[in-house]
Write a structure and sequence with these properties.
The complex is a heterodimer of chains A (274) and B (259). Chain A has 274 residues and is mainly alpha-helical. Chain A has twelve helices and no strands. In chain B, strand 8 and strand 9 form a beta hairpin. The chains are: A mainly alpha (274), B alpha/beta (259).
């Protein structure tokens, strides 16, 4: 069975490439700055958020750069939010294709996760720029050997997002309300994920426990340990423990497997509902 | 290959639920979840709304054979072809297809109006399952056939519908598939292009590939097909030689005199 899936995947890998490159080309067509927006957007968002949180809420992250703290979480959250949203509408949006030609349907959510992934890689440029600039102010903030483990966090984020994307794509075919529901869900999810604040300001023990179960928190925290360190390491960057590696990888793979199972279970019925 | 059939359709039935797409929303799901009466109502409705687009259809197509399909609108021809193409799964029955299928059911599936003609050739080609290497080698042929050399870098949204149809037809017919599914798409473009495209279709169909061909023109069916399946309301009325089946079909519609 795996061999069959692999052969099929290889046959349609060119289609996947075409879908990805189409989305990428169409995205910035006719905009003057084009791809530069991928770099500018997170930076502008970071500036606005840091102004609001530093000046209005008087928020401080003692001993480490708030800008880097914010941006390292923000780009990961943005990836998740954009990719999962696009994946959700990818099957419904490509109905005209699904209805006419056979193709493996998972290719649509997968292509969306990949397109946003390319975008995500571009946002690493401003992240590293900010790390270098803030490095003049914070002694421990240096690009170090542990950064080689960062791709692992991003890979987990990708796998997790793809899993969620598959589930959302399936549900939204049968229940169009999902588009609106998920908008609210992402908003709640964003505020429950420590992107702009430190998780330690949460005093409610139950809430704190629940928040730590959030896989996105795991991945973001994983990256932050490497880039910034945390209070346990006295804000010196360090490599997360093996247990942390396992938790990230495990949660991502489980969600992906659930996503695949749900998608596979329902995919033959898509055509009657879209 | 001997007696092996290229396409074997065995006892295929296809059921559609007519009611499902109407107003299915969270509200309704909630009501159904909490009310047994509504649930029972829905179940009864479901049975009532069932529509069998195909019932127990069986036939097989030998290598190199051109099989025609006739029937009135809504007889199930397109559904049947979609099942063979793998777009839909039949409710009952088995479809066995040996070799790669090229479904020319709809032209220009997957065109993106923001992309240029060149980019769309690759996109549309990949949708039909071709790889880059193949498209590279056939690119000039496609452009030449479509006669759109001067417009390759123009976004498709600025094309006229005739130009889009030309481009789509040119991409669709570059293949050399083992099984070709054709759903009446011969008449696109202006008169000159129509003639050219018809000739191209004939050469494709006559080239020894296995073809499933749907058309409302009994004349073209008779001239192209070896055997014909006549479908009516999802049932096979007759399978046999093109001439005989077509005449029977036309007789049933009281149209034979006109031919």
């Amino acid at each position: 069975m795996f061999k069959r899936i692999w052969i099929n995947f290889k046959k349609y890998s060119f289609l996947l490439k075409q879908l990805v490159s189409r989305d990428f080309k169409v995205k910035y067509k006719r905009s003057v700055l084009g791809m530069l927006w991928s770099l500018l957007y997170p930076v502008l968002m970071m500036i606005v958020m840091s102004l609001v949180f530093k000046n209005v809420f008087k928020f401080e992250t003692v001993g480490r750069s708030y800008l880097v703290y914010l941006l390292s979480g923000l780009i990961m959250w943005n990836y998740f939010s954009e990719a999962s949203n696009l994946s959700m509408s990818s099957v419904v949006g490509n109905f005209s294709l699904i209805n006419k030609v056979y193709m493996p349907k998972y290719i649509f959510p997968l292509s969306k996760c990949l397109v946003v992934g390319i975008n995500f890689l571009l946002t690493l440029i401003p992240l590293y720029a900010v790390i270098i600039i803030e490095g003049f102010k914070f002694e421990s903030l240096r690009i170090n050997i542990y950064h080689l483990a960062l791709p692992y966090a991003y890979l987990c984020l990708f796998i997790f997002t793809l899993g969620i994307g598959l589930i959302l794509a399936t549900v939204s075919v049968f229940l169009r309300d999902m588009f609106y529901i998920y908008g609210i869900v992402t908003m709640i999810w964003m505020y429950l994920t420590p992107i702009m604040y430190d998780i330690n300001i949460i005093e409610n023990k139950v809430l704190l426990f629940l928040m730590k179960l959030n896989p996105l928190y795991l991945y973001i925290n994983f990256a932050r340990k490497i880039i910034l360190g945390d209070e346990y390491s006295n804000f010196v960057p360090y490599l997360p423990s093996l247990k942390y590696f396992a938790a990230c990888g495990g949660s991502a793979v489980i969600v992906l497997l659930i996503g695949i199972a749900v998608f596979k279970w329902k995919q033959d019925r898509f055509i009657y509902y879209v | 290959m001997g007696n092996d059939s290229m396409v074997k359709v065995d006892g295929v039935s296809m059921r559609f639920n007519l009611g499902i797409e109407k107003n299915y929303s969270l509200k309704q799901a909630m009501i159904e979840a909490f009310s047994a009466k509504k649930r029972a109502e829905k179940k009864a409705n479901k049975a009532k709304n069932q529509f069998w687009a195909l019932t127990d259809v069986s036939f097989d197509v030998k290598p190199g054979e051109v099989m025609g399909f006739v029937g009135t609108n809504g007889a199930g021809k397109s559904t049947l072809l979609k099942i063979v193409a793998g777009v839909m799964k039949p409710t009952k029955g088995v479809v066995e297809v040996r070799g790669n299928v090229c479904p020319m059911i709809e032209l220009g599936a997957g065109f993106d109006s923001d992309l240029t003609a060149r980019e769309n050739i690759y996109l549309n080609g990949s949708v039909m399952g071709y790889n880059k290497h193949f498209l590279d080698s056939k690119f000039d042929e496609i452009v030449e056939f479509s006669e759109l050399q001067d417009f390759m870098e123009v976004p498709v949204k600025n094309f006229s519908s005739g130009m889009i149809a030309r481009l789509a037809f040119s991409i669709a017919t570059i293949v050399d598939p083992e099984i070709l599914i054709v759903d009446e798409i011969l008449s696109v473009g202006d008169a000159a292009f129509q003639k050219k495209s018809e000739a191209k279709m004939r050469s494709l169909i006559g080239g020894g590939t296995t073809v499933l061909y749907v058309s409302h023109s009994a004349k073209s069916i008779k001239s192209l097909c070896d055997r014909v399946v006549w479908l009516d309301h999802g049932k096979v009325m007759m399978i046999g030689e093109a001439e005989t089946v077509c005449n029977e079909y036309l007789r049933s519609l009281n149209l034979l005199e006109e031919e």
